[in-house]
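S1.2 Input.
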Amino acid sequence: MRRGHDILIVPTYPRGKVLHGDVKPLMSQVVSKPLLSADIAKAAAKRFLENPTGASEVLSSLFGGRSAGVILRNLAVYPKGLWLADLARDWRADHIHAHWSTVPATMALVAGEVSGLPWSITAHRFDIAQDNLLDMKARKACFIRAINQRGAQEIADRVSSAAPLPFVIHMGVRVPCVKHRELPNNNGRMLRLIVPANLLEVKGHTYLLQAVRILTDRGVDVHLDLAGDGPLREGLMRETHELGLRGRVAFLGLVPHEKLLKRMEAGSWDILVLPSIVTNSGEKEGIPVALIEAMSCRVPVVSTLSGGIPELFEGVDEALLVPPKDPAALAEAIERVGSDPALRERLIESGSIRVGDSFAVEQVAEELVKRFEMFGTRKH
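S1.3 Output.
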């Protein structure tokens, strides 16, 4: 929008309240409709009657899903895809872009194929493994973007040679102007840790709790804030109690994004830790935005050698990445950062440079706009 483009944001399945205040300035650009309503049914019928051949062809393609559940989810979004085709044509859109290659991309597929508008996809992480008509979408879309090299390779491995190769544009973050802060020696003072992540298995919280227990047993004065919520909350709270860490671990719940960033910029925490793992089902991280944002705010990070995380640190002289599911290695890395101001300074400087060079949101927007323009506008 700052580059002068008009944007409409169309949630696939809007529900709940807006959680993060920094999104509120964009709400005037949001068209929020339920998955199905009388208005959507009416617009869908109109679009179907105007292009029955195209609408029937794309409908039949949705039955190629790999399971009954995938087929039902795609069929559920079909009417809204037809409605989106109508909305996009009336608004004179030039391009439709979907985030997540699952049901949101199905809606873009329906809208794009029926309206004749070019459309594209950003694939993130678990949506690639779910493989919801990924090969067909990759062949029909103008392009498919991955947010890291690992994701691009996974897509390439799953789709046929007839599909164009995916390309990588990282997720972008605002790079704040954070002044240099004098880093105190943490010997004799509390070491403050933050984990901004949903309470999900892939985030590896349980291993960090065990690491905090190890640090406490070594006499390290440490406090851990967990910012986020999720299905593992009760279990993690119970584990915190069993490990005797109730005074050292705080469950902050959902923290507004802008508040979290302001606290990171202000130096509220000494280290951001993300102890991510690869789950037994194969779920893994892409490149977590939490790590990118911390580095942009000049907060040193400790994380794991899992998923796309190592890619974030390519070309970085020094990084503290430990094996996943290894509480002892986590504890060692955290203690090193806390006790060595020179190491912290090196981590901060190298991280800040890496984010500024490759993950600044202005750069990401520039690359995406080039891609949109490369494929022109309407396919009349």
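S1.4 Remarks. The chain has two domains: 21-171+361-374, 191-358.
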